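REQUEST
  id: r-88c1
  op: predict_structure
  target: Response regulator receiver domain-containing protein
  payload:
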Amino acid sequence: MPEILIIDDEKEICTIFKMTLERAGYSVRAAQDGDEGIRLFKEKPADILIVDIIMPDKDGIETIVETRKNSPNVKIVAVSGGGRISSDEYLKMAKTLGANVTLEKPVTRDVLLSTVKELLD
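RESPONSE
  id: r-88c1
  status: 200
  body:
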């Protein structure tokens, strides 16, 4: 069963993504920030990381760079709703630094499921 790790400081997003993916048959874990996500990934690697860009402590960009350096084959989905700059700018940066796919929040159920399926195929 494919393993997915969600890293997002918004608990509601983690809960919605986790429930959606579990109902589709995936094994899913969640972390509230980049540090926790990196720790969970080291304990048990995932097939796909879904990483929010704007988070306290270790943000998504740092998380993507560190993960990509240590695990070049993991699939990474970067998500952002924006912040000081538009979500588009954050997502371009994430793509340049190693994200396989970028999604702008809010992410619909269908987009989330199709993105995960495509990355696993």
